[in-house]
């Protein structure tokens, strides 16, 4: 397990040495800096769990260091060290974002208690952020982009969402088909009801019917209890059938019946269950071609394809890359707890020159790679160096 890493910024060598010795004895990993400028430089290079910072220092004092940490959005608790004559300044520092202050001369027990409290509080804050992100993953964010194809999709969503019409969303992997489905749900009258997603390609063909329609206890070897399927769980809301082109023929027949009659029957059961579900389907396959080859039912295709929405590949909407890159940059820097970085103009141009075979998903991954591997500014040379490493 990685040690907790602390940075001590103080212009007095004896205090730096004493704190380093004490904290290392307490099993912390400690770096030191003799002034504010050096300390800030180290904070932009390394990820620290806590910063101990003196207030009175040459070059940059503690208040300036604190202000820059807050301005850069660095996710780290700061404990100020104050002399006898500047308690008011220390209190002002807390108002401006510091966790606490320790008065000189330093008391060992008081120092350790303050640091442990700050670290425990930071752990709780991080846990809350993780939980909030997990909760928010189910919520919609706007489709990012202002290119002509994206504006047409947004217009279509606004028209179609308030209705109960089924929508077939087509486009390559990673282009954002799920996001379109979520927007359709969030802007509909079913928004407060469940949005249930099924990835038809990820579920073995022998289990897809149980996944969709549920099963009765004892209907097959591992069916130890009754289980509701996704159609029942989505009752009153929306069901998103992702990669529907990979669905087995048997499951296709049952989905068709469910759409025709608004009824399903669990595997191993004979009771009909009424369901009120709006279905969105998505695929990266050419379904008319799949129909010709006997892999997909034509009648199901026409049931699903009431409203077609085609999501373009990223290569067809490169004008959106600056907005997408900025969106992912902010999100990833926040998730990683690092200072906000900047992509230069030549960096954006280099991103627009990449052949995005993996679409939006690939762009997000590349931005994360650049955030981890690059300095404060992400330049064109960085993109050329790291973006082509598949």
TrEMBL record:
Domain Sigma-54 factor interaction residues, every copy: 143-372
Entry coiled-coil feature ranges: none
Residue stretches making up the Response regulatory domain: 5-119
GO biological process: phosphorelay signal transduction system; regulation of DNA-templated transcription
Residues recorded as bearing 4-aspartylphosphate in the entry: 54
Keywords from the UniProt entry: ATP-binding, Nucleotide-binding, Phosphoprotein, Transcription, Transcription regulation, Two-component regulatory system
GO molecular function, a single term: ATP binding
SMART domains: AAA, REC
Name of the protein described by the UniProt record: Regulatory protein AtoC
Lineage of origin: Bacteria, Pseudomonadati, Bacteroidota, Flavobacteriia, Flavobacteriales
Chain's gene name: atoC_3
